[in-house]
Amino acid sequence: MEKVTSGYLGGAQNGAKYETVSSGSTKHAETIEIVFNPQKVSYKDLLEVFFMFHDPTTVNKQGADSGTQYRSEIFAVDKKQINLASKMIKSLSNKFENKIVTVVSKFESFYPAEDYHQKYYLKNGDAPYCQIVISPKLEKLKKEGKKFLKN
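Above: the chain's sequence. Below: its structure in token form.
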């Protein structure tokens, strides 16, 4: 990855802050912006990792977190990405017990999250949330997603 930024996207309000996004009033999703070099990593690989660690079958919920800000949505920058994401959703439809509810939308008006949200796991890896939610996903990546990791 060239750059990964935590932030908010997909809402109707200009600007976004954690307090308002977490209230659900802005309709933004908590998300990340990934800037990548397609010569080094493919969009398809990014989608595979997304579906490896994200529950695409729950509306407005990820794990214990619930609200519109936790919806399953992919924000694509162009028609090619929209088509690839839509095709992947179709190809995965029989691999999940429940129906995939992931929406594919146009990437518009991304708002970076506050500094304390950036590189959150690196700064707070010992925090209970990180240990309970993020660490198991990283272990899964090491076991099941080796092809996505640098040596």
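The first strand starts at residue 3 and ends at 9.
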